[in-house]
Design goal:
Elements lengths: L6 H8 L43 H23 L7 H19 L18 H39 L2 H12 L2 H6 L5 H18 L12 H10 L7 H16 L3 H23 L3 H8 L8 H28 L16 H14 L2 H9 L5 H24 L6 H22 L6 H14 L4 E3 L3 H6 L9 E3 L4 E3 L5 E3 H10 L5 E4 L5 H11 L5 E11 L2 E10 L1
Parallel strand pairs: 1-2, 1-5
Antiparallel strand pairs: 3-4, 5-7, 6-7
Helix pairs in contact: 2-4, 2-5, 3-4, 4-5, 4-7, 4-15, 5-15, 7-8, 7-9, 8-10, 9-10, 9-13, 12-13, 12-14, 12-15, 12-16, 13-15, 14-15, 15-16, 19-20
Length: about 550
């Protein structure tokens, strides 16, 4: 170069930091922008419930409530489709309630000691039923039972959702709503629906307060204590409530949950003891429950009938319990154990719920008696329903992978329940008999009437007759014209031969021995004539009302 500076010096002069200067084969180093601050994610996967892959959000809660409403509508439709005149139990309890109200308002003593043979306290449900009957008749009383059973289903949904999740709650409610016992009791005016509702209330309160202060479990005491007062047989399920109080709080309080169960048990015992002391002796407890006479039905037949009326739900409940014991969560995420109940607690809960369903069948098998078994199985199945709901949930899988399996089980329960209730719900068609007897009573006045299942005409004709004017065909204590006392079939024969009754109503099938004795005494008896033969059907089959009147 002319200036005397060579090319290298010129390059260094132009780029003092020559080691960073771009050469023929070098490029300038790119500039990097600083990393931005992390942005909050738009969605966070919530914690998975301990028993299934589903999330209970506000949106899913409203959807679940909508589905529950549909379940309740189906249950109501199934119950309301059952129609007919009064059953003998309905007539007895409602009529007795009217007499008990008379004692409360006017001091008039009842015609008989209803507490001596009732399966519940006569001052509780019968009084409620009679008050409603005065306003709307038998249909209104049955609607009250429907309200109780629908409320029981709601309580079941609530406690199952609390124990597991909403999917399990819906499955439990849907399965329970179509059971034979649930549908039947929804249109049956007896103690049962109210007693079951009270047990459901107590169970819901126990589970709902499981994470709260232990003293709050005492909120369940009124309902738990009132249930066996309404129906004595409900006391069979009080131990299950006490154990449920322990298990529902154990995941949050550990061994201290035992104190919660003791607190509930003591509270129930104190209330029941106080009520028993104030009420005095109730012979009906022994007659219908604790000292009930043994029957002639085999234990095998009792369990067979129990399986027919509740086998589908119990089978699903056992399957759900077994799977729950094996896995606290569903199998898609075995690594996400989290805070799940221990195997011992899961085993105890499964045994409690499934075992409670067997209490009524086991007790009645011990008594060799299947009377009212079709109603009593429903009490135990209420406790098994949460595990059955969980079983349906597990059967369908995560994200409703196999919904057809759950639908299949529900349809099987629905069809079975509908067929069974249609067969069992068959009250005697007593309309023509009652109308005929009303005409007879208008002529005879203050007469005496012998009737098979006399409670039915005594209920419908209470405006023109008193309870003491009616004589049952179950038993009799009769004193003849010579002062000699007769009982049993001999008493019926003697009373009919002497013309003691102004009218006699027989139907057959209820008291066959007494029917035979009475018809024998009527044969060739000049004191009576056959007034009417009225066909009727009921759960005994096709029968006929035969009415004799005094000449």
């Amino acid at each position: 170069m002319e200036s005397g500076i060579n090319e290298q010096q010129h390059h260094q002069y132009q780029y003092p930091n020559w080691q960073y200067a771009p050469g023929p084969d070098l490029q300038p180093e790119p500039e990097f922008e600083p990393e931005p601050e992390p942005v909050s994610p738009g969605y966070v996967v919530p914690e998975v419930p301990v028993s299934a892959w589903s999330v209970d959000t506000r949106r899913s809660t409203w959807i679940s409530r909508g589905v529950l409403l549909c379940v309740l509508l189906v249950q109501a439709a199934l119950s309301l489709r059952l129609q007919g005149r009064a059953f003998v139990d309905e007539a007895l309890y409602i009529a007795s309630g009217h007499y008990e109200i008379g004692r409360l308002l006017n001091g008039t003593p009842p015609p008989t000691d209803f507490s001596g043979y009732f399966s519940g306290h006569p001052m509780l449900y019968p009084v409620l039923a009679a008050a409603v009957d005065s306003v709307g008749g038998l249909a209104a009383v049955r609607l009250v039972s429907l309200v109780f059973t629908l409320s029981t289903t709601v309580m079941l949904y609530g406690l199952t959702s609390r124990l597991f999740n909403q999917r399990a709650g819906l499955a439990a409610a849907a399965l329970f709503s179509v059971l034979e016992s649930t549908v039947f009791l929804g249109n049956f005016a007896t103690f049962d629906a109210l007693a079951l509702f009270l047990l459901a209330c107590a169970s819901w309160v126990i589970v709902r307060t499981g994470r709260s202060h232990p003293a709050l479990v005492l909120l369940a005491v009124p309902a738990a204590a009132l249930a066996p007062a309404v129906k004595y047989a409900a006391a069979l399920y009080l131990p299950s409530l006490v154990v449920l109080a322990v298990l529902s709080a154990y995941p949050y309080r550990g061994a201290r949950a035992v104190a919660r169960g003791l607190l509930l048990g003591v509270g129930i015992a104190l209330v029941l003891g106080s009520v028993a002391y104030l009420s005095g002796a109730l012979g009906g407890i022994g007659f219908t429950t604790t000292g009930r006479a043994h029957g002639t039905d085999s234990a095998l037949s009792v369990f067979r009938l129990s399986a027919e009326w509740g086998g589908v739900m119990l089978l699903v409940a056992v399957g759900g319990a077994i799977d729950y014991i094996r896995r606290a969560r569903m199998g898609e995420m075995p690594w996400a154990l989290g805070n799940t109940p221990g195997r011992v607690r899961r085993t105890a809960l499964g045994l409690l719920m499934c075992g409670t369903a067997l209490l009524a069948p086991a007790y009645q098998a011990h008594l060799h008696d299947d009377i009212s078994l079709f109603k009593h199985v429903g009490f135990g199945l209420f406790f098994a329903a949460p595990m059955a709901g969980l079983g349906i949930n597990r059967l369908m899988g995560a994200h409703f992978r196999y919904p057809q399996l759950g639908i299949m089980v529900w349809v099987a329960a629905l069809v079975t329940g509908m067929a069974q209730t249609q067969s069992l719900y068959d009250p005697p068609d007593s309309a023509r008999m009652v109308a005929t007897m009303r005409q007879v009573i208008a002529k005879t006045g203050n007469g005496k009437y012998l009737a098979e299942e006399f409670e039915i005409p005594a209920y419908y004709l209470r405006d023109v007759t008193s309870w003491k004017q009616w004589q049952s065909t179950t038993d009799i204590d009769y004193t003849d014209k010579h002062g000699k006392r007769h009982s049993g079939t001999d008493g019926f024969k003697t009373a009919v031969r002497e013309g003691h009754f102004d009218a006699i109503v027989l139907r057959g099938g209820v008291t066959p021995d007494a029917d035979t004795a009475i018809t024998t005494a009527l044969r060739g008896n000049a004191k009576y004539r056959l007034l009417a033969v009225l066909p009727s059907t009921d759960d005994y089959g096709s029968t006929t009302y035969r009415i004799w009147v005094k000449r």
